[in-house]
Specification:
The complex is a heterodimer of chains A (343) and B (329). Chain A has 343 residues and is α/β, with parallel strands linked by helices. Chain A has 13 helices and 4 strands. Chain A folds into 2 domains: 231 residues, no CATH class; 75 residues, Periplasmic binding protein-like II (D-Maltodextrin-Binding Protein, domain 2), CATH 3.40.190.10. In chain A, helix 3 links the parallel strand 1 and strand 2. In chain A, helix 1 packs across helix 8, helix 6 packs antiparallel against helix 8 and helix 12 runs antiparallel to helix 13. Classes of the chains: A alpha/beta (343), B alpha/beta (329).
Chain lengths: 343, 329
Amino acid sequence: MNKFSLSSLHQLTAMRIRLFVRNREAVFWIMIFPILLAFGLGMAFRNLPADTFRVAATTPHLTQALDSQKPFFATTLDEITGIRALETGKILLLAVQKPEGVVYRYDNTNPDARTARLLVDRAVQAAAGRRDPVPSSDQLIHESGSRYIDFVVPGVLGMNLLGSAIWWLCSAIVEARQKQLLKRLVGSPMPRWQYLAAFPISSVLLFVVEIAVFLGFARLFLGVPFRGSLWQLALLCFASAVSFSGIGLLISSRVRTMEAATGWLNLTTLPMWIFSGVFFSSNRFPSVIQPFVHVLPLTAAIDSFRANMLQGIGISHLAGSLTVLFAWFIIPFLISVRIFRWR
Amino acid sequence: MAYQSTLAVADLDVDVFTNQWPRFALSIQGLRKAFDDVVAVDNLDLKVRRGECFGLLGPNGAGKTTTIEICEGLTRADGGMVEILGLNWGENAAELRQSIGIQLQATQFPEKLTVEETIALFRSFFHQGVSMDDAIATVQLEEKRRSRVGGLSGGQKQRLAMACALVGDPQLLFLDEPTTGLDPQARRHLWDLLEKLRSVGRTIILTTHYMDEAERLCDRVAIMDHGRIIALGTPSDLIASVGGEHIVELVVSPDSPLHPDTLAGIPGIKCHRVSVNFHRISVSELHTTVPRIFQAIADQHLQLTEFRTHSATLEDVFVSLTGRNLRDE
């Protein structure tokens, strides 16, 4: 590789960065949006006392028994109004007084309703005179690293990197193709691989800001822990950004319009948002599809972020995730060099 | 086949006068290209000499852009041979890319880059070429060098495209409709630039559907229609081939048609075409022929509703060859 070919790679990368930072909308969606998202998450998951459960009972006697207990906000409703309130989600549980005892109406697929069922029954039994044979008391912990927000921040980081890398890349390539700039570029002696390579290179440089801002916010305002090495975390983020831009390149290899690109983009990213454990652990999916879940690049990215940030696991133990990420860069990149539509 | 290619090489032999090899900047033989069921280029032969400014002239859809894009290595031909500077795309693509400069019909450069950044990008692809300052000075964009491309006028954008075509100091320049869509002043500005390039001996191949542009800029032109070359020569030779230096156009009232035989005896009339009541007559001398035409019309008591004359142009060559106007679709 001589001086000239390097200088053209430098120029192509510089072009990518210039076009990005001069595009205010892209800067907003890629840089500012994650902060708003993190802020929203912070509002939703800030440390509050345990939620109160809204429940209802059909007799004032039952209502009184529930209202005296701490986690409940209980009202008295007749059975028909109560059922309607259940259906519209205004209450979690309706306690119906029958001659033979109490019947609880609730949705057993809703975890909150299941909890409410146990607590309501305990309160009803206590009010009727039941005494616990073993005395017990609570000692509460809110240790950082084991909260839901700690779990979800690495997930949102991965999701956002994936979305912004692919969207940015598709829109840039489709525009260049529509405006015949690609055709003009291949009419010059530009090495074609350099045009494509400029995307992953610049994505690493651009997303360093995005990552730093988002994680800085998570550390300062949400108290999310960083137990592993920051350098290794940076390396994992870079590996993810490069991997995601490989996928973006493949998607935009052939498409001529942004509409078509958006279809492919959704087809690629939506399954990953669902299966890769952004908001809940991907281990919840049946074991049959676990092999599929684990070869997704977003799963590899998020799992390695969580391992680094929450468990402090070193990069040497994350070879599996890194292999998946590297494969998701190199295979799509090589395919797109071959099939890329230059005009 | 082997015999044919030997012939082709003999054609491209050393020019004994200039001792340059090859003599032709561009040599095309039997070029064919079809898109679906439309034949865009139909068995085309063409040779362009070094240092020549050559124009491919023709209406939209004549096959000019397809021909030039095959020469630029952007479109693959279905058949035939293209040799550029003695090289071909099959074997010498990398070398050819370094030696030609191209400007496409519809390229839009990124609007958020500056003029300098765009030129620097294209300059970086070439092993050797002109400096940034020279490129900007050649196309006279000094005042706009730090402006964003999005803020340039149509003419300035086209000059930027020229700068990008020139940064590699190409031996051969391909320009596809360089002035289409420009206002008259911007067109003239670009013509000045092209004349400057031509005067320093650069080989230029351009397509256009403006006859005045081809007449002014080109040493030779090829008139294309339906993927074929229907006329080839210097603009003045082609115009002379129409048979007269001047064109008379007249319309007579529809109730009293003018029969071509009426004018047949008048000396100086070279060619007479009629469509309905519209007459198109090429003449060699206006001052002797026109009075006789008037006289003949007066003798027949015909009603003359329109009359005009102009010097013959390449447009008239096209009309006389095809019976259509260049800008008819």
